[in-house]
């Protein structure tokens, strides 16, 4: 059972209020919880009850945060930003939502902290080869819930994640303003969502390519039925698919698990 939301803490509410004119639909309604299973679960439930587009669900901690393929997302209290938004997009923009969100969050991080973030297809944010955050889009024909998890503060991680994950404050070596980070990320997301709605798909993909350059030439593996294939990443195409050169063939990967080697 989801607890009742509390007032948004001033740490977040102040920057959100100051950025209100730039938040587009995300400035209308924000719900904050001390702890939930997952902000995306709460947002999905509310979306099914006809929550309006732009609803923002925030939590200080998650007990069952997740990434793609149901992987666990470690979400301790006060250590990150755990945010999900409800969208009701036209079907033509859905294929690029995850990439647009990655671009927007990277832009928000840069605006709020100065840290430059790399993107790795389809939904990861990296710095110095280590994972800083991720994007997860889930939905129905009537709505999409876009979840964003960001590691902000340095915390003790499980041994299997310690060498592959990082945080914004670890990379910068100083404390940052979580409220400003949230406000700038939502403002950037409003802008990139507007790009998609107005047919400016190429602007989004071009921005993604700039931040995804480190992935070019990387070797990846993926499964086709019961067999595995491998190849070198060449580019992301105009529709957001990953283009991989494999055995003289250019393969277009739209979805599914890709293993970066």
What's the short version?
Helices cover 29% and strands 30% of the residues. The protein has 261 residues and is of the alpha+beta class.
Descriptive notes:
The chain has 261 residues and is α+β, with helices and mostly antiparallel strands. Helices cover 29% and strands 30% of the residues. A seven-stranded mixed β-sheet has the order 1-2-3-7-6-5-4, with helices on both faces. Strand 5 and strand 6 form a beta hairpin. Helix 3 runs antiparallel to helix 6. The radius of gyration is 18 Å and the shape is globular. The mean pLDDT is 92.
Shape: globular
Strand sequence of the main sheet, in spatial order?
Answer: 1-2-3-7-6-5-4
Q: Compute the separation of the termini in Å.
A: 41 Å
What is the number of independent domains?
2
Contiguous low-pLDDT stretches (5 residues minimum) are none
Give the SSE string: HEHEEHEEEEHHHHEEEEE
Proportion in helices: 25-40%
CATH fold-type name of the largest domain: BirA Bifunctional Protein, domain 2
Averaging pLDDT over every residue, what do you get? 92
Known CATH architecture of the largest domain: 2-Layer Sandwich
This entry's quaternary arrangement is single chain
Largest sheet: 7 strands, mixed
């Amino acid at each position: 059972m989801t607890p009742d939301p509390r007032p948004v803490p001033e740490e977040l509410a102040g920057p959100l209020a100051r950025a209100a004119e730039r938040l587009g639909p995300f400035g209308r309604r924000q719900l904050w919880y001390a702890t939930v299973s997952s902000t995306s679960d709460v947002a999905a439930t509310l979306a099914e009850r006809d929550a309006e587009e732009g609803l923002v669900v925030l939590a200080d901690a998650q007990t069952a945060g997740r990434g793609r393929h149901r992987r666990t997302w470690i979400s301790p209290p006060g250590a990150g930003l755990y945010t999900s938004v409800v969208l009701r997009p036209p079907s033509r923009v859905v294929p690029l939502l995850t990439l647009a969100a990655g671009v927007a969050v990277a832009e928000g991080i840069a605006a709020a902290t100065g840290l430059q973030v790399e993107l790795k297809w389809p939904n990861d944010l990296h710095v110095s080869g280590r994972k800083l955050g991720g994007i997860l889009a889930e939905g129905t024909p009537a709505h999409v819930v876009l979840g964003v998890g960001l590691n902000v503060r340095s915390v003790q991680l499980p041994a299997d994640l310690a060498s592959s994950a990082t945080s914004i404050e670890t990379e910068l070596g100083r404390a940052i303003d979580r409220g400003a980070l949230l406000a700038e990320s939502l403002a950037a997301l409003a802008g990139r969502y507007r790009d998609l709605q107005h047919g400016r798909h190429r602007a989004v993909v071009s921005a993604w390519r700039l931040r995804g350059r480190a992935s070019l030439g990387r070797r990846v593996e993926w499964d086709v039925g019961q067999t595995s294939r491998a190849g070198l990443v060449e580019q992301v195409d105009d529709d957001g698919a990953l283009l991989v050169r494999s055995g003289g063939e250019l393969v277009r990967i739209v979805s599914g698990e890709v293993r970066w080697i």
